[in-house]
Amino acid sequence: MTAMDITIHASFLPHDDPDASLAFYRDTLGFEVRNDVGYEGMRWITVGPKDQPGTSIVLEPPVADPGVTDDERRTIVEMMAKGTYAGILLATADLDGTFARLQAGDAEVVQEPTEQPYGVRDCAVRDPAGNMIRIQELR
Protein backbone atom coordinates (compact mmCIF):
# COMPACT_ATOMS: atom_id res chain seq x y z
CA MET A 1 0.00 0.00 0.00
CA THR A 2 1.38 3.42 -0.89
CA ALA A 3 0.98 6.51 1.25
CA MET A 4 -1.64 9.03 0.19
CA ASP A 5 -0.58 12.56 -0.64
CA ILE A 6 -2.93 14.57 1.58
CA THR A 7 -2.50 18.06 2.99
CA ILE A 8 -4.60 20.19 5.30
CA HIS A 9 -6.28 22.75 3.07
CA ALA A 10 -8.75 24.47 5.40
CA SER A 11 -10.17 24.34 8.89
CA PHE A 12 -13.45 25.94 9.87
CA LEU A 13 -14.13 28.11 12.91
CA PRO A 14 -17.45 29.76 13.71
CA HIS A 15 -17.87 33.50 14.12
CA ASP A 16 -20.74 35.60 15.38
CA ASP A 17 -19.30 38.98 14.40
CA PRO A 18 -17.52 38.92 11.03
CA ASP A 19 -15.94 42.37 11.43
CA ALA A 20 -14.49 41.57 14.87
CA SER A 21 -13.21 38.19 13.64
CA LEU A 22 -11.70 39.77 10.55
CA ALA A 23 -9.90 42.37 12.67
CA PHE A 24 -8.54 39.68 15.01
CA TYR A 25 -7.24 37.30 12.35
CA ARG A 26 -6.01 40.01 9.95
CA ASP A 27 -4.81 42.78 12.25
CA THR A 28 -3.84 40.94 15.44
CA LEU A 29 -2.58 37.61 14.06
CA GLY A 30 -1.36 39.13 10.78
CA PHE A 31 -3.12 36.63 8.51
CA GLU A 32 -3.98 37.63 4.97
CA VAL A 33 -7.58 37.69 3.82
CA ARG A 34 -8.05 35.24 0.96
CA ASN A 35 -11.78 35.46 0.48
CA ASP A 36 -14.70 37.37 1.96
CA VAL A 37 -18.07 36.15 0.74
CA GLY A 38 -21.55 37.20 1.77
CA TYR A 39 -24.73 35.27 1.10
CA GLU A 40 -28.24 35.82 2.46
CA GLY A 41 -27.04 38.07 5.28
CA MET A 42 -24.21 35.71 6.32
CA ARG A 43 -20.49 36.03 5.73
CA TRP A 44 -17.64 33.55 5.20
CA ILE A 45 -14.10 34.91 5.58
CA THR A 46 -11.08 32.85 4.56
CA VAL A 47 -7.76 33.82 6.15
CA GLY A 48 -4.33 32.26 6.42
CA PRO A 49 -0.63 32.84 7.03
CA LYS A 50 0.95 34.86 4.22
CA ASP A 51 3.76 32.34 3.72
CA GLN A 52 1.39 29.33 3.67
CA PRO A 53 -0.95 29.88 0.71
CA GLY A 54 -2.21 26.29 0.78
CA THR A 55 -3.50 26.37 4.37
CA SER A 56 -6.52 28.43 5.40
CA ILE A 57 -9.02 29.03 8.17
CA VAL A 58 -12.58 29.64 7.06
CA LEU A 59 -14.50 31.79 9.53
CA GLU A 60 -18.11 30.78 9.05
CA PRO A 61 -21.51 31.61 10.47
CA PRO A 62 -22.40 28.75 12.82
CA VAL A 63 -26.03 28.79 11.71
CA ALA A 64 -25.32 28.33 7.99
CA ASP A 65 -25.83 24.54 7.91
CA PRO A 66 -29.48 23.84 7.01
CA GLY A 67 -29.29 20.47 8.80
CA VAL A 68 -28.78 22.12 12.21
CA THR A 69 -31.93 22.28 14.32
CA ASP A 70 -33.02 25.30 16.35
CA ASP A 71 -32.07 23.45 19.56
CA GLU A 72 -28.62 22.68 18.14
CA ARG A 73 -28.21 26.34 17.10
CA ARG A 74 -28.98 27.44 20.68
CA THR A 75 -26.46 24.93 22.02
CA ILE A 76 -23.81 26.15 19.55
CA VAL A 77 -24.40 29.79 20.55
CA GLU A 78 -24.17 28.86 24.26
CA MET A 79 -20.96 26.85 23.73
CA MET A 80 -19.40 29.66 21.68
CA ALA A 81 -20.18 32.13 24.49
CA LYS A 82 -18.38 29.81 26.96
CA GLY A 83 -15.48 29.22 24.58
CA THR A 84 -16.05 25.47 24.43
CA TYR A 85 -17.34 25.00 20.88
CA ALA A 86 -14.26 25.17 18.65
CA GLY A 87 -10.54 25.81 18.65
CA ILE A 88 -7.35 25.57 16.70
CA LEU A 89 -3.69 24.97 17.46
CA LEU A 90 -1.18 27.31 15.82
CA ALA A 91 2.62 27.38 16.10
CA THR A 92 5.29 30.08 16.16
CA ALA A 93 9.05 30.33 16.59
CA ASP A 94 8.58 33.41 18.84
CA LEU A 95 5.92 32.63 21.42
CA ASP A 96 6.76 35.57 23.69
CA GLY A 97 6.66 38.07 20.81
CA THR A 98 3.42 36.59 19.51
CA PHE A 99 1.87 36.68 22.97
CA ALA A 100 2.88 40.33 23.41
CA ARG A 101 1.21 41.17 20.10
CA LEU A 102 -1.95 39.32 21.16
CA GLN A 103 -2.06 41.24 24.45
CA ALA A 104 -1.55 44.54 22.61
CA GLY A 105 -4.42 43.57 20.31
CA ASP A 106 -6.74 43.09 23.29
CA ALA A 107 -7.11 39.33 22.80
CA GLU A 108 -8.83 37.56 25.67
CA VAL A 109 -5.93 35.81 27.42
CA VAL A 110 -6.72 32.35 28.75
CA GLN A 111 -3.16 31.26 29.55
CA GLU A 112 0.14 33.12 29.43
CA PRO A 113 3.15 31.34 27.87
CA THR A 114 3.71 28.23 29.97
CA GLU A 115 5.92 25.13 29.92
CA GLN A 116 3.47 22.24 29.79
CA PRO A 117 4.18 18.89 31.50
CA TYR A 118 3.69 17.16 28.13
CA GLY A 119 6.77 18.82 26.65
CA VAL A 120 5.57 21.96 24.85
CA ARG A 121 5.54 25.64 25.68
CA ASP A 122 2.32 27.37 24.68
CA CYS A 123 -0.24 30.07 25.43
CA ALA A 124 -3.96 30.34 24.88
CA VAL A 125 -6.34 33.14 23.91
CA ARG A 126 -9.91 33.36 22.68
CA ASP A 127 -10.89 35.03 19.44
CA PRO A 128 -13.88 37.40 19.38
CA ALA A 129 -16.29 34.46 18.87
CA GLY A 130 -14.89 32.59 21.89
CA ASN A 131 -12.90 30.02 19.88
CA MET A 132 -9.88 28.71 21.77
CA ILE A 133 -6.63 29.61 20.01
CA ARG A 134 -3.64 27.74 21.45
CA ILE A 135 -0.25 28.78 20.15
CA GLN A 136 2.66 26.43 20.60
CA GLU A 137 6.32 27.40 20.41
CA LEU A 138 8.29 25.61 17.72
CA ARG A 139 11.49 24.07 19.03
Overview of this structure, please?
- Residues 7-138 form the VOC domain.
- The protein has 139 residues and is an alpha/beta fold.
- The protein contains 3 helices and 8 strands; from the N terminus they run βαβββαβαβββ.
- The strands form 2 sheets. Strands 1-4-3-2 form a 4-stranded mixed β-sheet, covered by helices on one side. A 4-stranded mixed β-sheet has the order 5-8-7-6, with helices on one face.
Quick synopsis:
This protein is an alpha/beta fold.
SS summary, helix count: 3
**Secondary-structure element order, as H and E?**
EHEEEHEHEEE
pLDDT < 50 runs, ≥5 residues: none
Instruction: Give me the secondary-structure category.
Output: alpha/beta
* Tally of strands: 8
Please give the alpha-carbon distance between the first and last residues.
33 Å
Mean of pLDDT: 93
Helical percent range?
A: 10-25%
Give the quaternary arrangement of the chains. single chain
Features:
4-stranded mixed beta sheet, 139 residues
Write the layout of secondary structure elements.
Blueprint: E1 10-14, H1 18-28, E2 32-39, E3 42-48, E4 56-60, H2 70-82, E5 87-92, H3 95-104, E6 108-115, E7 121-126, E8 132-137
Parallel strand pairs: 1-4, 5-8
Antiparallel strand pairs: 2-3, 3-4, 6-7, 7-8
